[in-house]
């Protein structure tokens, strides 16, 4: 991939903190989100959730609900095609069929003239269940006598959605050579996205053609189109998807949300139906991050060479596989960390339990494994009497070295990130511990971070209008992170036009070129790549015409800021894009337009090097690196942890929009802070105890550090636009271990389970005191 | 279901004659009856702040407020903050500082900040954080939001 040319942007738009074009409409309230839409005759949809974690459905009686005035449709699985959907395993019905597998699982859907009537109808639906024994713990679900959620598929364990094994070197023999070995069990919570805009869809059916138009809050117009078509057994061409403004997503809107069932209600009633979840329905029916339990052992020599690691991961995917097997892939793939550890044994289980399904969430398996790995590496440093950054520097992979499974690290900038983090955080001095406030203990901790940028397919079309302005169309969804702005800057920089002369289209499956999804830290990187490729073709067309118009060979031409093609070395000789476009439209060649497409190449694991089971290739690639540092104060009386200051150092390759990148990093840090300290879905007997934003605590303005320093390093490399790399997920991945390492530095408490609530921190502190130290 | 009552709502300086059921919230009436959809519904139970409006200049969670209690009160929603095409300084600062991501929290934050600046024209960062205590933002980590609001007061 290093063979890709890296042209320099024209003008100064790339690297500028230009305001986002949609910011104005968002601060004035004019921005239109899906729930803001209303069309004549529109009905309101709601879903009935299961009261049981695991039960057989014996019968339905919907007659009372259907008889309620104002009710237009009541659907159960019996009214839907017998289709199961799922990104990896086809195991999810739109509405529970035959049995329910988690409390809150949608069992019936109602469309009525107003939300109140629709909710009242839910109360009139009678479902008879035969309760089955449930299982709530991933390891327990693998026991031979565990209740089985799904009909067994093949020879493996019936509750295993996936099982992976990766072995390199000779892990069994390596332990004897280790001078220090640390072993622990780590647990991470089911964090929830809490995108501020609950899931929402408006479905309209054209009475003449039967065509379904969906307006919906999603990360991907094209996946929604494909999944809805599959679920309703209708041709994809009958479905059009449009995406209004999206009020946050973070992975929670990667797969279908309520689009297929809303479309089913629209088909059943022949009327437009809008379904907007209440916060509690969203929290009980949608998804969370995978809770994980990770058994990890790492050994090193006295001089700080990490020699061996053994890992066993259990990802709890809840009632349905959803993106769980993909999450397990990433978790396994990152289990060695960004280190050259010669002897590694990774085993990973992705397991069904009778809880809310877990799916994609910023970091995608990586925050879980980073928590275990980075806390353990820190303890290793402690046991070796080494500085934590020093130990990481000694073992960090560099350019040209191989990842677990054999993929090359093409731009190994972890060293640069670690060194900059040490410098900007004034690490050496703060490690000496400034005197804390009375009753508090202070400490500083860090984590090394690696992630991947790039995944699957994208395309872009770029055209020059008659007046020389530029239209760019990609199909990529801006979920609020600012990709529309960054991608417009990429196009403007590739062609040398001001942003005011560039129109960036919103996704529409009828007219936009395909984009797989806004996810996997891929949009700026992958879609940016295809935009630069399409712009390069457009440049060639512009030059071809300009050559004829200016009577100069193409080799002498250059792009000039402001949308001009000029002759190199002759400032006075140029022709505008508008003039060239007119020439193309009316004299020769035809309209100027180009498209480019790309499928990010999957990496086939090197089976010569690595013993591989359950994973043959990785679709994600291009490693990106970061280092995160947190300074904390721990209250001795309450165990409460306050993060005082934070540093997040990222190699972004090339900065497209500094303000946007820094804002995304700060936001990622705070989501990671929530993961580390407060956020956790809690269940009792399968019932979610905290499905409200009152019971589930996301960080507020008073809970965040007084300064989160985003530091952007530029080591351009790879196929991203002008050498840019992704940053979206990376900023969350290392936060929990950095904070927990700081807690240990402050107090000695070895936090192995997050969130590190006051109670858990206190318990660790007390345990430490009873043991009389470590 | 109770009988509907008539209600004159003073919204952004204009009177709206409405007929509403007494149990309906201000948020509902704003979004569904007046179609002022700039006021967002994030949780509908007073935990997220996306539905914040000003009642006689004071920030109020419209999802916890009955519409009929608003007789004789002056309500300001995000639609009433700018003057013509001119953005309010708070709105301008949020845009300029790159504080806006998904935007769903922004209506509430704009109004909370406006009320804060009216009673305290030069808030410190700590005072801004205190004022924003009820406004959840899931994207920005608050850093640029606080920076934008503080920048208006000319204090560090």
UniProtKB/TrEMBL annotation, chain A:
SUPFAM superfamilies: CO dehydrogenase molybdoprotein N-domain-like, Molybdenum cofactor-binding domain
Coiled coil: none
Example of a GO MF term: oxidoreductase activity
Chain spans, region Disordered: 1-21
Aldehyde oxidase/xanthine dehydrogenase a/b hammerhead domain span: 28-133
Cofactor(s) this protein requires: Mo-molybdopterin cytosine dinucleotide
Xref: Gene3D superfamilies: Aldehyde oxidase/xanthine dehydrogenase, a/b hammerhead (3.90.1170.50), Aldehyde oxidase/xanthine dehydrogenase, molybdopterin binding domain (3.30.365.10)
Domain of life (superkingdom): Bacteria
UniProt cross-references to PANTHER family, sorted A to Z: XANTHINE DEHYDROGENASE (PTHR11908), XANTHINE DEHYDROGENASE SUBUNIT D-RELATED (PTHR11908:SF157)
Name of the protein: Xanthine dehydrogenase family protein molybdopterin-binding subunit
TrEMBL record, chain B:
Gene3D superfamilies hit by this protein: 3.10.20.30, [2Fe-2S]-binding domain
Regions that span the bilayer: none
Pfam families: Fer2 (PF00111), Fer2_2 (PF01799)
GO molecular function, one term: oxidoreductase activity
Protein's organism: Pyxidicoccus fallax
Domain 2Fe-2S ferredoxin-type: 5-81
Source superkingdom: Bacteria
Record-given protein name: (2Fe-2S)-binding protein
């Amino acid at each position: 991939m290093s063979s890709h040319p890296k042209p320099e942007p024209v003008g100064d738009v790339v690297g500028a903190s230009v305001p986002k074009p949609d910011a104005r409409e968002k601060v004035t309230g004019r921005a239109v989100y899906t729930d803001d839409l209303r069309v004549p005759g529109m009905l309101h949809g709601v879903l009935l959730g299961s009261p049981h974690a695991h039960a057989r459905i014996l019968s339905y009686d919907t007659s009372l609900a259907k008889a309620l005035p104002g009710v237009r449709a009541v659907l159960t699985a019996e009214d839907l095609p017998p289709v199961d959907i799922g990104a990896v395993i086809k195991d999810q019905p739109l509405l529970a069929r035959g049995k329910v597998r988690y409390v809150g699982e949608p069992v019936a859907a109602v469309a009525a003239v107003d939300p109140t009537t629709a909710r009242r109808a839910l109360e009139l639906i009678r479902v008879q269940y035969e309760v089955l024994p449930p299982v709530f713990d991933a390891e327990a679900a693998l026991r031979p006598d565990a209740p089985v959620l799904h009909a067994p598929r093949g020879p493996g364990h019936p509750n295993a959605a996936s099982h992976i094994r990766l072995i390199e070197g000779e892990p069994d023999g390596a332990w004897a050579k280790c001078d220090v070995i640390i072993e622990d069990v780590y647990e991470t919570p089911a964090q929830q996205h809490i995108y501020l805009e609950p899931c929402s869809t408006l479905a309209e059916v054209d009475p003449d053609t039967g065509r379904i138009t969906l307006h919906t809050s999603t990360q991907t117009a094209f996946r929604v189109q494909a999944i809805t078509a599959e679920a309703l057994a209708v041709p994809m061409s009958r479905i059009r998807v449009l995406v209004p403004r999206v009020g946050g997503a973070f992975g929670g809107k990667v797969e279908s949300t309520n689009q297929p069932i809303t479309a089913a209600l629209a088909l059943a009633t022949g009327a437009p139906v809008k379904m907007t979840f209440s916060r509690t329905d969203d929290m009980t029916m949608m998804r969370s991050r995978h809770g994980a339990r990770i058994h990890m052992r790492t050994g090193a020599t006295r001089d700080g060479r990490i020699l061996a690691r053994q890992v066993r991961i259990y990802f709890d995917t809840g009632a349905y596989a959803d993106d769980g097997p993909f999450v397990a892939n990433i978790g396994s793939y990152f289990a060695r960390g960004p280190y050259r550890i010669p002897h590694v044994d990774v085993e990973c289980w992705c397991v069904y339990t009778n809880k809310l399904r877990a799916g994609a969430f910023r970091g995608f398996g990586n925050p879980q494994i980073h928590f275990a790995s980075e806390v353990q590496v820190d303890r290793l440093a402690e046991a070796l009497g080494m500085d934590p950054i020093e130990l990481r520097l000694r073992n960090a992979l560099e350019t040209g070295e191989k990842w677990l499974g054999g993929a090359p690290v093409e731009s190994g900038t972890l060293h640069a990130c670690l060194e900059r983090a040490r410098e900007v955080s004034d690490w050496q001095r703060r490690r000496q511990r400034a005197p804390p406030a009375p009753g508090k203990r202070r400490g500083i901790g860090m984590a090394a971070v690696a992630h991947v940028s790039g995944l699957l397919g994208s395309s872009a079309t770029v055209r020059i209008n008659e007046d020389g302005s530029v239209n760019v169309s990609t199909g990529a969804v801006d979920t609020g992170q600012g990709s529309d702005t960054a991608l417009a800057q990429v196009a403007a920089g590739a062609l040398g036009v001001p942003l005011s002369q560039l129109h960036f289209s919103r996704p529409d499956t009828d007219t936009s070129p395909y984009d797989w999804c806004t996810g996997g830290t891929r949009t700026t990187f992958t879609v940016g790549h295809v935009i630069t490729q399409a712009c390069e073709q457009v440049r060639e067309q512009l030059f071809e015409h300009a050559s004829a118009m200016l009577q100069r060979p193409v080799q002498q031409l250059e792009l000039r800021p402001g949308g001009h093609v000029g002759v190199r070395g002759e400032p006075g000789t140029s022709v505008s894009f508008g003039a060239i476009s007119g020439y193309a439209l009316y004299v020769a060649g035809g309209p100027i337009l180009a498209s480019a497409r790309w499928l990010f190449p999957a990496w086939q694991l090197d089976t010569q090097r690595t013993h591989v089971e359950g994973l043959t290739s990785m679709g994600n690639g291009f490693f990106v690196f970061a280092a995160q540092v947190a300074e904390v104060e721990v209250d001795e009386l309450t165990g409460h942890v306050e993060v005082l200051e934070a540093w997040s150092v990222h190699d972004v390759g090339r900065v497209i929009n500094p303000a946007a990148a820094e804002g995304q990093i700060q936001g990622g840090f705070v989501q990671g802070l929530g993961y580390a300290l407060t956020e956790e879905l809690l269940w009792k007997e399968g019932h979610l105890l905290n499905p409200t934003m009152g019971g589930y605590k996301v960080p507020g303005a008073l809970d965040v550090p007084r300064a989160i320093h985003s530091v952007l390093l530029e080591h351009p490399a790879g196929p991203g636009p002008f050498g840019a790399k992704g940053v979206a997920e990376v900023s969350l991945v290392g936060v929990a271990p950095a904070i927990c390492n700081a807690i240990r530095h402050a107090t000695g408490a070895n936090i192995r389970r997050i969130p590190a609530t006051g109670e858990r921190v206190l318990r660790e502190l007390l345990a430490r005191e009873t043991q009389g130290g470590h | 279901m109770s009988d509907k009552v008539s209600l004159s709502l003073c919204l952004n300086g204009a009177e709206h004659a409405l007929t509403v059921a007494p149990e309906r919230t201000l948020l509902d009436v704003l979004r569904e009856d007046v179609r002022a959809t700039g006021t967002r519904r994030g949780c509908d139970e007073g935990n997220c702040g996306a539905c914040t409006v000003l009642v006689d200049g004071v920030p109020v969670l419209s999802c916890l407020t009955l519409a009929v209690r608003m007789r004789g009160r002056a309500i300001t929603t995000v639609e009433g903050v700018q003057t013509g095409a001119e953005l309010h300084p708070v709105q301008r600062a949020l845009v300029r500082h790159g504080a806006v991501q998904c935007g769903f929290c922004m209506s509430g934050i704009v109004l909370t900040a406006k009320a804060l600046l009216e009673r305290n024209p030069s808030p410190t960062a700590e005072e801004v954080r205190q004022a924003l205590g009820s406004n959840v933002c899931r994207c920005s980590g608050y850093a640029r939001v606080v920076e934008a609001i503080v920048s208006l007061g000319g204090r560090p």
